[in-house]
Design brief:
With 274 residues, the chain is an all-alpha fold. 70% of the residues lie in helices and 0% in strands. The longest helix has 32 residues.
Length: 274
């Protein structure tokens, strides 16, 4: 076997470090700016880090707006969307992977085709349906359209196909029904995939901005991404307040990722793409 050159590994390592630092600079700037005064940020002068750190931006976030209520709205909607999406994806993936029925291939192709359609294309008909159901200005308006994920169905199918059929047949011989089969056999085996899909789904639901902006007008029902618009003034922008809100918005996502990072990485590496 040909030995790898040590200098090549060093070049790759330096490149990865530089790339990681470049990607982290905007987030670092966001955090340090949240501890600056608005005058320091707008002046564009001074050091990268705050000379006189202040919590003024964070106090304003909680004093001038129902930010805790918005965090609660985002948490409730993101958790519900994540749980139901995992359930529907696992169930549909199992059916497509291990069951045979007429039109299965065509139906699966149609589901995959929806992955190619931008949300902006179906935004207007989705809004009209939501309005007809009387869900405007309710959290259900952002929950119901996101309970099924074509990508989740595809990911679950690819993963469940790797489960030996003999294992499922043996469980059926022992008297296990389809529900027990899903709970006791399949769910533990696809747990890494569910963790990865759960993090993706939670992040997308938490950071969703466009759709809540369209269907939520009542301040009490707003989600945290809309807070960035709320804190933008008509003529003057309080950048320190916006940066403080942005830090608070990204914090839950970072915590979820740090807790489930091992399952997330394992799920990405174990998922078979056939």
């Amino acid at each position: 076997m040909q030995r790898k050159s040590p200098w090549l590994d060093s070049i790759v390592l330096v490149f990865l470090i530089v790339t990681a630092v470049a990607m982290m600079i905007p987030y670092l700037w966001m955090v340090v700016s949240s501890f600056k005064s608005n005058m320091d940020i707008m002046s564009g002068q001074g050091s990268f880090f705050p000379n006189h750190p202040t919590l003024e931006g964070y106090f304003t976030v909680f004093e001038d707006a129902p930010f805790v209520k918005w965090m609660w709205n985002s948490a409730i909607s993101a958790v519900i969307i994540t749980i139901i999406t995992l359930f529907t994806s696992a169930l549909a993936g199992y059916v497509f992977a291990k069951h045979q029925f007429k039109g299965k291939r065509i139906l699966f192709i149609l589901i995959l085709a929806t992955m190619m359609i931008p949300f902006q294309v179906i935004m207007i008909p989705t809004y009209l349906i939501t309005a007809r159901l009387g869900l405007i200005d309710h959290l259900a308006a952002i929950i119901l359209p996101n309970l099924v994920s074509s990508y989740g169905v595809f990911l679950a199918k690819q993963f469940i196909e790797d489960i030996p059929q003999d294992l499922l047949d043996a469980a059926r011989i022992d008297g296990a029904g389809e529900l027990r089969l899903m709970i006791r056999i399949i769910a533990p085996l696809i747990l890494p995939m569910l963790s990865a899909l759960g993090i993706f789904t939670f992040m997308n639901a938490w950071n969703n901005y466009l759709w809540p902006l369209i269907v939520l007008n009542d301040t009490d029902h707003m989600t945290v991404p809309l807070a960035l618009v709320y804190f933008n003034g008509t003529h003057v922008v309080n950048y320190n307040v916006v940066m403080s809100a942005a830090v608070l918005i990204t914090l839950p996502v970072m915590i979820v990722f740090l807790i489930f990072q091992k399952q997330f990485i394992k799920g990405l590496t174990m998922t078979g793409m056939k």
